[in-house]
Specification:
By secondary structure, the chain is mainly beta. It is built from five helices and 14 strands.
């Protein structure tokens, strides 16, 4: 099958776009408002975009609470979503009024960042403490801005639970990372295999 995205006439029951761009890491974003309120929200548009410097990005469909907070404070945390925390992550996605603490709603411990004034999930196997570098709305071919708002942050501190370290590396079989697929589907990335790059002749 083939279809053009201007008509989106794929004939399927659901739009397959996000199912094709999968699996996607989950950006479990911790933030704090200027009023001191805490927020924890998962984003399915999230990834690392640079290693030097270490930059990550999450994209919000509209100006949600996380975007408001990071624009006010300039900082956030990105928390690692593992299989043992998936139910709590899902619970933190509940739509509640601004100022409601999703850490408490999900039964999670909010720890203050060491380098940034933003909370992180104490139970997470790994956490990235980030300072915002830019906030933008990407544009389409017609020049119109997307409804999504992209937040880029530079990682300034990293927490790692030594329980997932084996032989000097993070062991994904122990960490059991969860990724977002299409629709309401998720996958677990603990089935790991190594593949080395071929050497040039």
């Amino acid at each position: 099958m083939f279809y053009t995205t201007d008509t989106n006439q794929h004939g399927l029951a659901h739009d397959p776009f996000k199912a094709i761009v999968a699996p996607r890491p989950i950006g479990w974003i911790g933030s704090k408002g200027r009023d001191g309120s805490l927020n924890l929200s998962p984003y399915s548009f999230f990834n690392a975009v640079s290693d030097r410097p270490k930059l990550v990005m999450f994209s919000s469909a509209g100006r949600k609470d996380s975007v408001r907070n990071v624009e006010e404070t300039g900082v956030f945390t990105a928390n690692f979503v593992s299989r043992n925390l998936i139910e709590k992550m899902n619970h933190s996605s509940i739509a509640v009024p601004y100022g409601i603490d999703e850490f408490s709603l999900a039964g999670l411990t909010a720890e203050p960042g060491r380098l940034v004034d933003a909370p992180y999930v104490a139970e997470a196997f790994a956490v990235l403490e980030c300072r915002v570098t830019e906030v933008m709305q990407p544009k389409g071919l017609n020049g119109e801005p997307s409804e999504n708002i992209m937040v880029f942050g530079q990682v300034v501190g990293i927490h790692i639970d030594e329980a997932i370290i084996r032989d000097g590396r993070l062991d994904m079989a122990l960490a059991r990372p969860v990724a977002r697929m299409g629709y309401m589907d998720y996958s677990e990335g603990s089935d790991v295999f190594e593949l080395l790059r071929p050497k040039a002749p």
